[in-house]
Amino acid sequence: MYVCLCEGVTDGQIREAIYEGCCSYRDVRNTLGVASQCGKCACLAKQVVRETLNNVQISQAATAYPASFTAA
Fold this sequence. Notes:
Largest sheet: 2 strands, antiparallel
Pfam families: Fer2_BFD
Keywords: 2Fe-2S, Electron transport, Iron, Iron-sulfur, Metal-binding, Transport
Number of strands: 2
Structural class: mainly alpha
Domain BFD-like [2Fe-2S]-binding: 2-49
Distance between the termini: 50 Å
Family: Belongs to the Bfd family.
CATH class: Mainly Alpha
Organism: Pseudomonas guineae
């Protein structure tokens, strides 16, 4: 879905920017130009960033402690 109509930025593009290294809303804004025109998309863009960063943290925490298997 489009988050920023002025710049034509979708939620998928925001997620991809985070997966490629953006670590904050500010990074996403500087990279994609979100909320740089009218600013009406700022709340939704921040929400997408927050949710995506939380998902990344959860997935990293899950892989930080790999299951250990013992031979039977």
